[in-house]
Design a protein that fits this description.
The chain is α+β, with helices and mostly antiparallel strands. The chain has helices spanning about 25-30, 60-65; strands at about 15-20, 35-40, 50. It has 2 helices and 3 strands. This is Nucleic acid-binding protein.
């Protein structure tokens, strides 16, 4: 039976942030940040997972991070 927690260090202390990033081509050249993600990260070791905000709406991202 495996314990839930960070995949790298096992900590249960996590947080999440919303970030925006540029894509490729013209959006990169003009610095258009049209890709939006939610980042869930371990506060102890910094391990991070990115989730596309459009496809992950409605799910509990902290539950996905901890398995």
């Amino acid at each position: 039976m495996s314990e839930k927690g960070c995949m790298k260090c096992g900590s249960n202390d996590a947080a999440k942030k919303d970030v925006a990033m540029t894509g490729t081509g013209l959006s990169k050249m003009f610095d258009v940040q049209n890709n939006q993600f939610t980042v869930v990260y371990c506060k102890k070791c910094g391990y991070s997972e990115f989730y596309n905000r459009q496809s992950s709406a409605g799910s509990n991202l902290l539950d996905l991070f901890f398995g």
